[in-house]
Amino acid sequence: MTQDNSETVLIVDDNLTNLAVLFAHLRSVGFKVLVAENGYSAIKRAQLALPDIILLDILMPGIDGLETCRQLKKLPETCNIPVILMTALTDTETKITGFAAGAVDYITKPAQYEEVAARIHTHLTIRNLQKKLEERLAEREKLVQELDAYAQTVAHDLKAPLALILGFAEILETRWHNLSLAECEGLLGSILRNGRKMQEIIDGLLLLANVRQEEIRLTKLDMLPLIAEAQARLSLLIERNQAKIILPPGFPAAMGYVPWIEQVWVNLLSNAVKYGGSPPEIILNGRLQPDNMVLFSVQDNGRGLTPEEQSRIFSPFSRLDHAGQIEGHGLGLSIVERIVSKFGGTTGVTSEPGKGSMFYFTLPSSPSEP
């Protein structure tokens, strides 16, 4: 019975009759099949095609199957591909040598083709389970690293403003009767500013967590009103820096979730204003791409970024060396990256020292977009 298999099998055998029969049988049950007639060609073909599993004859001219298996296991591209050895040799020593070379199983010749297909299915299932486990472990490691980073943020970024709040409050509590009205107002203003800073950090951490956990239904976005709202939220920052923001007449329609995409614009515009030129000049743009994704960009006139800075700027809690004079907690761009990836898009930056930076993100285009 034919099955719908997407996996690729590489058969390595110098016996053309065996090769042809096995090729025909595996094709008949739905596998994609590649062939090689010796060890050298098998290694080259495995490196290029990266099959899901390899059936490897032991007795071949040139390098035999055992040595071929050893070399496959030494190469980073092929070391994780399961190898099943095929041989007429049934002695224990040969089997042990084969397992030591990295093989996962043996098939004794003459092969029963139903058994061959069954063994292939078994080892492909095992390998797929291993891949899923590796992905889960990698995801778990990433979560652990993020939790460590969260802990450091709480310990560092929240500790400093909290200490100031407590210090100013203690001064007001113990010395208020000796302070002038202006001094009291100054201390209260400092308490308020540091309290807002703590709230901003906490809101950023909560948003990072929510983006990972929540399932959101995408809707069609009208970008101009979203950007206007983002500008309104940043009005004091924009006015203080005398920033100029240049908008296109319109944007291609894209899909997303309004509150989160508004936050994307807030973070990117805030970043452009803070690190732009004097005064900042920021150009926004959007264009439909051939892959039916819409690319949105924010171009600033700042000092630009080195390649090393570009490589880590979207990492959570990453601060650039030149950012010491500007308040921030290293969450803004990582929030952008996580929101956009949630919707199947990508983020990035193109920059050159002395020539500014262009940050961009992509979103799926609206189905009605031509």
Report on this structure.
It contains twelve helices and twelve strands. The chain has a five-stranded parallel sheet, sandwiched between helices. A five-stranded mixed sheet has the order 7-9-10-12-11. By secondary structure, it is α/β, with parallel strands linked by helices. The chain starts with 7 loop residues before the first strand and ends in a 6-residue tail after the last strand. It has helices at residues 16-28, 39-49, 65-74, 92-101, 113-156, 159-175, 181-213, 223-233, 235-241, 258-275, 307-312, 332-342; strands spanning 8-12, 32-36, 53-57, 83-87, 105-108, 219-221, 244-246, 254-256, 281-288, 293-299, 347-351, 357-364. Helix 8 (223-233) crosses helix 10 (258-275). It is 52% helix and 16% strand. Helix 3 (65-74) links the parallel strand 3 (53-57) and strand 4.
Distance between the termini: 44 Å
What is the alpha-carbon Rg in Å? Answer: 30 Å
Number of helices: 12
Q: Kindly state the mean pLDDT as a whole number?
A: 84
Q: What percentage of the residues does DSSP assign to strands (E)?
A: 15-25%
Q: What is the subunit organization of this protein? A: single chain
Shape: elongated
Low-confidence stretches: 321-329
Class from secondary-structure proportions: alpha/beta
Order of helices and strands: EHEHEHEHEHHHEHHEEHEEHHEE
Sheet with most strands: strand arrangement: 2-1-3-4-5
The tally of beta strands, per DSSP, is 12
**How would you characterize the largest beta sheet?**
5 strands, parallel
Helix content: 40-55%
